[in-house]
Amino acid sequence: MIGIKAIGTYLPEARTSNFDRMNKFGMTESFVKHKIGFTEVAIKAPEQETSDLCVKAWEDLQQNHPVTPYDIDCVIVCTQNPDGKGLPHTSAILHEKLSLPLSCAVFDISLGCSGYVYGLSVIKSFMEENEFKCGLLFTADPYSKVMNNDDKKTATLFGDGATVTLLDDKPVFECGKFVFGSDGCKKEGIIVKEDGQLYMNGRAVFTFTVRVVPDNIRDMLKKNS
């Protein structure tokens, strides 16, 4: 049985304070605390790439759950903001940086908010089908690469960071049954347009969250009862 063994995380040290932008965006301290919900966002260094964030998450994982690179059977990187122009794929770049064996399977998937759930299902199934014993699921999205710092809707919410989830055949946490769904008609709710900048229809995203997600949660709980 494949499941979660441990999780490593990384947030860049640099921060952008939402309090410092209250005048710029016409926000109050109460709005920052109670509407946005957090006071600062993490921002990567200009020279850091997506794979660099993944390496930092890997180093965090290694502190409490040491893993020999040679034992890694597969790696999936979930990101919508890959290294460079996206070719070669970020997982291949990460393969070199972590000195993984040639027998290790690596590939990327491109998803945002739902990426961890999809990624967890994909890597679990992939490992079980191929009788792999040890795999890594990375999620990393440096949104500062596509951020318009003058856009209140995105600049106050989106930051940079990475996680790595270690999965093996002796897990601490089991994976239950998943629930999935899609609505392509709302595809432009969060979008990077031709100018290379991130845009979000905040009202549409909020409406989806309060109307659709609760039913998804109930379906998931029912499916796993």
From TrEMBL:
Keywords for the protein's UniProt record, in alphabetical order: Fatty acid biosynthesis, Fatty acid metabolism, Lipid biosynthesis, Lipid metabolism
Gene Ontology biological process terms in this record: fatty acid biosynthetic process
Beta-ketoacyl-[acyl-carrier-protein] synthase III N-terminal domain location: 107-184
GO molecular function, one term: 3-oxoacyl-[acyl-carrier-protein] synthase activity
Pathway per the UniProt entry: Lipid metabolism
Gene3D superfamilies: 3.40.47.10
InterPro entries: ACP_syn_III_N (IPR013751), Thiolase-like (IPR016039)
Family: Belongs to the thiolase-like superfamily. FabH family.
Name listed for the protein in its UniProt record: Beta-ketoacyl-[acyl-carrier-protein] synthase III N-terminal domain-containing protein
